Predict the structure.
Amino acid sequence: MNVERLMQVVLAPVITEKATNIAEQNQQIAFRVALDATKPEIKAAIEHLFKVEVESVQVLNQKGKAKRFGRFTGRRRNERKAYVTLKDGQEFDFSEVN
């Protein structure tokens, strides 16, 4: 896969209370990813960026919430999240990202 594309797939880690609980219980890390990213692309991007071995990737498409701004209605943007499970003995180190 193209290295430039892999650098654009993973947007940011998801740091919420729910994501922290999932990380502790299931040893999964949550990431915001590009809307058109596929599971093999996400796996390759995580392995390239963090130098770890990925066991599985689960993907979630989240619709943007409908919000009101005064009398106008709007919508937040849609998100795609990836829950990444690492192989045994692997660990994320966010300080050493390429």
Strands lie at 10-13, 28-33, 54-62, 66-69, 72-75, 79-86. The mean pLDDT is 91.
